[in-house]
Structure formats: C-alpha cells, structure tokens
Write a structure and sequence with these properties.
The protein is of the alpha/beta class. It has helices at about 10-25, 35-45, 60-70, 90-95, 110-120, and strands spanning about 5, 25-30, 50, 80, 100-105. The chain contains five helices and five strands; from the N terminus they run E-H-E-H-E-H-E-H-E-H. A five-stranded parallel sheet has the order 2-1-3-4-5, sandwiched between helices. The longest helix is centred in the N-terminal third of the chain and has 13 residues, at about 10-25. The protein starts with a strand and ends in a 5-residue tail after the last helix.
Amino acid sequence: MKKVLIVEDNTLNMKLFNDVLLANGYQTAQSVTGLDVIELCESFKPDVVVLDIQLPEISGFEIIKQIRENPPHKDIPVVAITAFAMHGDEEKILASGCNAYLSKPISVGRFLEHIQHFCHRDAA
C-alpha cells in the first residue's frame, strides 16, 4: 500500500485530502504544523508528501528545504497545495524543490492524478 504524508493546517482540507486518499487505497499520516516532517519521513516512509505552503509555524518552503537537504528523504516527491495563485507563484514553488503544484480549491481528480503519478512512477 502506497503512503502519503499530508501536511495541512486547515482541518477541512486535511479531512478532504485524507478521505480522498483513504477511499482510493492509500495509507496516510498527517501533520498540522509541519515541524515534525523529517521525523514522520523517518517513521512513516511516505511515497509522496502533500504540502500546504502557508503554515502558521513554519513555511512550506522551509519544509521543502529540510526534505531536500536530508539525504534519505531528498527524493520523496512533494506536491504543493496552496492558495498562492498569483502570477509567478507556481514557478517559485516548483523552483523551491516541489515536484508539482495545485492551487486551492483543488480539483479532486487532478489531486489524485498527481498522487497516482508520483506513487507509481517506478512501477512502469
């Protein structure tokens, strides 16, 4: 079973992402602050990280940096999900080390496409 780590501080968004993933056969772990992402990567070993960029205690950009600078986890795909939808935001987010970008409100179909793509990229 493929594993997805969800980093999201909004309760409703967390429930939506979690419910969609569980309904589609994924195992999930959650972080509402992002401060424990490296520890969760160690213990949960996610295939993909779903990351909100705007978090209250730590920037999503800092979390991406931590993941990319941590050798055992540097290759975990990160899908950024954010309310940042201004011109240039997608480029900035992808340049920071994210593998994909989705703006809120998300399309559940596109969300699942991204998760499936990154979870099964080695299966081909």
